[in-house]
UniProtKB/TrEMBL annotation:
InterPro entries: DinB/YfiT-like, Maleyloyr_isom, MDMPI_metal-binding. Pfam families: MDMPI_N. SUPFAM superfamilies: DinB/YfiT-like putative metalloenzymes. The lineage of its organism: Bacteria, Bacillati, Actinomycetota, Actinomycetes, Propionibacteriales. Signal peptide: none annotated. Residues 10-92 form the Mycothiol-dependent maleylpyruvate isomerase metal-binding domain. This is Uncharacterized protein (TIGR03083 family). GO terms for molecular function: metal ion binding. It comes from Kribbella caucasensis. It comes from the Bacteria.
Length: 209
């Protein structure tokens, strides 16, 4: 538990530092999250620190119980209301916040921050490497229900990390760094050049839109 809490705090610290140095024009560039710019992604990352349980429940009612609808509405609202500096400050002030996604524990909190951080850095072409011990925490906890949630079909494909002793599935190899394969597991489309193997074209695109 202590290791996980430290990993979460470390990831939030690294992301806050990266966002502090990010050029202002990059905040309006697209990410790997379809339809979200950098500012919407950061608004989403920090949403749990600003939203009380009563507000969350009311939002879920308005979204007719659909969390993805709530998350999208709230991210767009907060991104329009808060400046880049305010969003970054919110993240930095909550580095040790105890938030955990329902049923996900601190490993789920780490996954949330790592995945959305990669949504930003990979889309922007920033060569930021997530520490491998954090990647191991996440990849060792991948469950079939997560793949179903993201709608990922890996039938006949084996994911094979090039920087970590980790594989997933069986079949034709799709290779890449652990963090890029994590994005495949999460249903993201990556810019070309991040994955190798015959299945790579299924998971890549020339331009992030």
């Amino acid at each position: 538990m202590t290791d996980l809490r430290s990993a979460v705090a470390g990831e939030r610290t690294d992301l806050a530092d990266l966002l502090t140095a990010l050029p202002s024009e990059d905040w309006d560039k697209p990410t790997l999250c379809d339809g979200w710019r950098v500012r919407e992604v950061v608004a989403h990352i920090t949403m749990p620190y600003r939203m009380s349980m009563p507000r969350f429940l009311l939002g879920m009612m308005k979204a007719r119980g659909n969390f993805d609808r709530l998350a999208d509405r709230q991210a767009r609202h907060d991104a329009a209301q808060l400046s880049a500096a305010e969003l970054t400050d919110c993240l930095r002030k909550n580095i040790h916040h105890p938030w955990k996604p329902p049923g996900g524990g601190y490993r789920g909190a780490l996954s949330h921050d790592v995945i959305h951080g990669l949504d930003i850095t990979v889309a922007l072409g920033i060569d930021r490497q997530v520490p491998l011990d954090r990647m191991r925490h996440i990849l060792d906890d991948i469950k079939p229900r997560q793949l179903k949630y993201f709608g990922v079909d890996l039938t006949g494909i084996q994911l094979r990390a090039t920087d970590l002793d980790w594989t997933h599935g069986a079949g034709v190899p799709l290779t890449g760094t652990a963090q890029h394969l994590l994005l495949v597991l999460c249903g993201r489309t990556l810019p070309t050049g991040h994955l190798n193997g015959p299945p790579a074209d299924r998971f890549t695109a020339e331009v992030v839109r």
